[in-house]
Design goal:
The N and C termini lie far apart (about 75 Å). By secondary structure, the chain is mainly alpha-helical. It is about 80% helix and about 0% strand. It is globular.
Amino acid sequence: MKKHLFIITLAVSSLQFFSAQDKKIAEECMQKADYKCAEEQYAKLADKEMIQQYQSEYFNNLGTAQRRLGKTAEAFKSYESALKSNPKSAAVYANLGSLHNQKGSKTKALDYLNKGLIADDQNAEMYLTRAKVYEGLNKKDLAEKDLNQILTFAPDNIFARTGLANLKKRNGNLEGSLSDYNKLLSEKPESLLYNGRADVYLKLKKYKEALADVNKAISIDPKFSQSYVTKALILFDSAKDKEACASLDKAVATGYEKAALTEQYAKCVKK
């Protein structure tokens, strides 16, 4: 009997070891932006995992890898499998809300985000996504309310603070937005903030300042894909299409979803 128990314990330990190794490989693939590798690894992990909480996590990460690869339909299925394994996972609700919003299904996006916020009413990511949905529905007062709600439990949340600055920008208050970014940068000179201010300068058609800021953002964090998109927009506006297209390629290589850049890539088609 003891021998059988020993064999079973050894087998379980071996499975746990190999699972941990596979998880490490998957995480490394994700960090290196090798999303094909990550997709393969997380698919294997999700398939053999028996504990539902972990299985949900693997399906969620699988969906994100597929999303980065432009496999939207597969990503939806993976996220839905993740939710089935763990109906209380805030991370999955956040991803489904975000993906539905990206695909233009704002009603479905709000449904998932509202349910997610019932599961976790202090989830900044979901408030941020819901603010985007509200803004897309022209409910800017509700968008502002969500961003301010984040600051009630996370007063230093940089995404909420930049979100409020960006609301001013999109409402045409460029000088007000610029003032907010100047204040934020005086407190914390981060890549996200330089990128945000670069976009404000772009809207003000101050291309020299915009390019300086976006290059600063890239020098601080070369893997921040949004900076390459912003740089491409600046270069397109400066009639430097070839350089702009190269910047778009860099954005995709560092994790930006190519499907979200269809309009920009249309300018790169050879005439």
